[in-house]
Amino acid sequence: MCQVYRHNLTTKSLINYHFVWSSRRKRKVLKGMVAIRLRELIEEVCPDLEVEILTLDIHPNYVHAFLDCPPKIAPHQIIHRIKAYTARHLRKEFEHLLVLPSIWTRSYLVSTSETISQEIIEDYVKNQGKRG
């Protein structure tokens, strides 16, 4: 997949972040209908942030997302908005999630893909569930 640089009047950019975040206390709550709805919610909120999803992989207790992001939003703002939006909607729609103090931990991992290719990150994300 060949990506295109973002353009506006004063900026040309190509910024890809690899995010990983987990459920509170690594509880395996991101499965079945919750995982399906989580994917839909992430796909809903990303266009509002001008973020393009390159790869998204949801596991029972954590999420990998490889995102093409605009330069005007800091990584901590992107992940905060995604986590807040998804938590708010998931807790409204799935009553069993209300027993958790929160769905997400406050922590997350973010890295850039400057030194490795997008294909390597995509392959890594897709194969996470296949490792023992």
Automatic annotation (TrEMBL):
SMART domains: Y1_Tnp (SM01321). It comes from the Bacteria. Pfam families: Y1_Tnp. Residues 12-128 form the Transposase IS200-like domain. This is Transposase.
